[in-house]
Structures are given as structure tokens and as C-alpha cells.
């Protein structure tokens, strides 16, 4: 191992030592023993010193060993580690703007979406409580991302992280797409990853907005409720267009699929419907910034391709979720294959 080893007498001492040094997210951690770290590196066939990437703004190096330490702390098993590596590779891409997303006062979190065989291999639950820690795999993978940010890039509250309020997604925000209960193409495939290949998509996001419409089976009426959630975000938070994600559980999904609507149909509809005029800001206390641009129109999505449609959630209930971007197009959603390179 390349990192300094510290000997402590028991698990309680480990917890207090890590907490006192600011190395945790406030929750208990799994002691990162050299044996546990080695098991993760061996599983992924990754040398400890292998460079996973460099944070573009401050030039911080992210190595496999550092990621493995934090993944163990988060509770990851060896089988979870390749997904953690892929998520970091995606986050370190320049277009993701990791430094801006993690330093912002806006309370941004990193959302990770899993696709492909890896979901069943690691037991990533995609139905009940899909956005609320539905399974061990999604919970620990999301937490490994956060702990790595804290300990490798100093993204702690009051240090790099300048969030005014923050959000629960900062602790862990990882979901798996329900690919078996839908006829739709998986998110990763829509975004260019070959079918049957495991992949992660990362996106810098504001907190989810839950919507409900269980009084219709008409696709247009269902999607008007999703559009309303997107427009509400434009009014209350940020008017700027960017990547939005929507999570569509089984009840809404069934109505849409029965009517023959694809993910691209949904994206095209919401591109047209999720838009406001700058003058609408006057209704929500922002009259001072309307100026002479009241008739200027803004779209939530720059194009239909900027919508990430995710099939996930329990089998019943007319619910869905809107997951807005952190701040317009400053940060791009990035999709990365797990354990492979499609461009090599």
C-alpha cells in the first residue's frame, strides 16, 4: 500500500479518529484495512498506483488506491468497486465541471445512474424506494463517491464545499434503471453505449422534485405534470436550460408504453412543453430581473437529447420525479462504460 498505515486499538477508536480528522460524512465508516483495500483492487485488477484521472481545475491526482480506501469506508464490497472507478472517470471529464459542481453554493449533488448487467450482478434494486437507498449496492456506491470527494479533493462543508443548504443527495445518490420491466432502451444505450454493456451516467443535480398524477391514462396529460415540475424549477431555482432527468415508475410507464410512446417521444414532448417566459418570474418574486425581457422565452432543455429518461420506481402509484440540473449547461451529464473503453 502506498498510503500511510495507522494502527488503532478497536473499531470505536477508528470511528473517533476518522471523525475527528474530518474524514467522514458524519456517519460511521468501515475501517479501511490493507486487506480490504487490496481485495477491491484485486477484484478490479487495478494496481494501487494506477491513475484514474486528474481533477482539471486544481490538478489533483486521483489514484485507484485512494478510491479503494474511500470505497471500503463507504461499505463497498469488491464487486462494487469497478462501478466506483467508472463513475470517477466520468466525473473527471472536463465537461462535467467537477470543481464547480462541488464548490457551488447551490447545494449540488452527484447523481449516479447504473445500467446493464452490473445491476443484477451487484443486486442494485431499481423498484421500491428507488431514490431513497433502495439497496446496499446503490447506497454504498453513492456514498463512496461522496467520501472520495471529501478525502481526495477536500470537498468538505466550509472547505471546497460552499453549499448554503446542501441536500440529502450529498450523502449518497445512486440509482439503477429498471431494464427488465420496460420495453424502452436503457439510458446508457440511448447515450451511445453498446447494448448489454454495463455503464454509469453521472450528472450534477439539484434535489429531486416528486410529482403525482393518477387521474389519467393519457400520455400528454401525464407528461404535462412532468413539464410542470420542470417549469417550476425554472421559476423557483434556475431559468437556464440544461440536462434534466426524469424518473418514470411503472404506473406512468405502463400508460406511456401502452400508447406506444418511446423515450424519444417523451423527450420531444417535454422539449416543447417545458418552457417559460422571463416575465413569469414576476409571479414568484423575481420581478427585479425581468427588466425589458418579459417576452423572452426559455426552454428547460436545449434539445430533446438533453433529457435523461430513467425507468425506475415501485409498481404502483401515479408518481414520478424531476431531477433538475445543478446550473444549466455549465456541467454536462457524462456516461462511461464500466471496465471497458468504447473509444479505444
Structural account:
There is one protein chain. With 344 residues, the protein is α+β, with helices and mostly antiparallel strands. 33% of the residues lie in helices and 15% in strands. The strands form four sheets. It has a four-stranded mixed β-sheet. Strands 6-11-7-10 form a four-stranded mixed β-sheet.
Summary of the model, kept short:
This protein is an alpha+beta fold. Helix content is 33%, strand content 15%.
- Could you tell me the number of beta strands? 12
**Regions with little confidence, pLDDT below 50 for 5+ residues:** none
What summary fits the major beta sheet? 4 strands, mixed
Shape: globular
Radius of gyration: 21 Å
- How far apart, in Å, are the first and last alpha carbons? 30 Å
Oligomer: single chain
How large a portion of the residues is in β-strands, by DSSP E? Answer: 15-25%
Structural class: alpha+beta
Order of helices and strands: HHEEHHHEHHEHEEHEHHEEEEE
Q: Helical stretch count?
A: 11
Overall mean pLDDT: 95
Helix content: 25-40%
Major beta sheet, strand line-up? 4-3-5-12
Tag the structure with descriptive keywords.
344 residues; alpha+beta; four-stranded mixed sheet; 12 strands; 33% helix
Helix and strand arrangement:
Blueprint: H1 11-20, H2 34-43, E1 51-54, E2 61-63, H3 64-74, H4 81-91, H5 98-103, E3 109-115, H6 118-121, H7 136-153, E4 174-176, H8 187-190, E5 199-205, E6 209-212, H9 219-236, E7 244-248, H10 250-258, H11 263-273, E8 275-277, E9 297-299, E10 307-311, E11 319-323, E12 334-337
Parallel strand pairs: 3-4, 7-10
Antiparallel strand pairs: 1-2, 3-5, 5-12, 6-11, 7-11, 8-9
Amino acid at each position: 500500500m502506498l498510503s500511510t498505515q495507522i494502527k488503532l486499538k478497536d473499531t470505536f477508536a477508528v470511528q473517533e479518529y476518522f471523525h475527528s480528522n474530518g474524514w467522514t460524512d458524519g456517519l460511521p465508516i468501515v475501517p479501511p484495512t490493507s486487506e480490504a483495500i487490496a481485495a477491491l483492487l484485486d477484484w478490479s485488477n487495478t494496481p494501487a498506483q494506477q491513475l484514474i484521472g486528474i481533477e482539471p481545475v486544481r490538478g489533483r491526482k486521483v489514484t485507484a488506491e485512494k478510491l479503494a480506501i474511500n470505497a471500503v469506508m463507504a461499505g463497498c464490497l469488491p464487486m462494487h468497486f469497478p462501478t466506483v472507478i467508472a463513475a470517477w472517470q466520468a466525473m473527471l471529464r472536463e465537461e462535467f465541471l467537477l470543481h464547480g459542481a462541488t464548490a457551488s453554493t447551490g447545494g449540488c449533488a452527484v447523481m449516479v445512474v447504473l445500467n446493464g448487467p452490473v445491476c443484477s450482478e451487484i443486486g442494485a434494486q431499481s423498484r421500491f424506494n428507488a431514490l431513497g437507498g433502495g439497496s446496499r449496492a446503490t447506497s454504498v456506491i453513492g456514498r463512496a463517491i461522496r467520501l472520495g470527494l471529501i478525502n481526495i479533493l477536500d470537498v468538505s462543508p466550509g472547505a471546497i464545499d460552499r453549499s448554503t443548504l446542501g441536500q440529502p443527495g450529498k450523502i449518497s445518490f445512486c440509482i439503477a434503471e429498471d431494464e427488465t420491466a420496460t420495453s424502452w432502451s436503457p439510458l446508457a444505450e440511448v447515450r451511445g453505449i453498446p447494448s448489454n454493456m454495463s455503464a454509469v451516467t453521472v450528472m450534477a443535480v439539484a434535489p429531486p422534485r416528486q410529482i403525482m398524477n393518477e387521474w389519467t391514462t393519457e400520455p400528454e396529460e401525464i407528461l404535462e405534470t412532468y413539464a410542470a415540475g420542470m417549469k417550476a424549477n425554472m421559476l423557483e431555482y434556475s431559468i437556464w436550460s440544461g440536462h434534466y432527468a426524469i424518473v418514470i415508475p411503472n404506473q406512468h410507464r405502463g400508460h406511456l408504453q401502452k400508447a406506444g410512446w418511446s423515450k424519444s417521444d417523451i423527450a420531444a414532448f417535454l422539449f416543447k412543453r417545458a418552457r417559460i417566459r422571463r416575465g413569469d418570474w414576476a409571479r414568484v418574486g423575481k420581478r427585479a430581473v425581468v427588466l425589458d425581457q418579459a417576452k423572452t422565452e426559455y426552454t428547460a432543455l436545449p434539445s430533446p437529447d438533453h433529457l435523461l429518461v430513467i425507468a425506475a420506481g415501485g409498481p404502483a402509484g401515479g408518481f414520478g420525479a424531476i431531477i433538475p440540473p445543478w446550473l444549466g449547461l455549465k456541467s454536462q451529464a457524462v456516461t462511461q462504460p464500466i471496465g471497458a473503453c468504447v473509444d479505444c
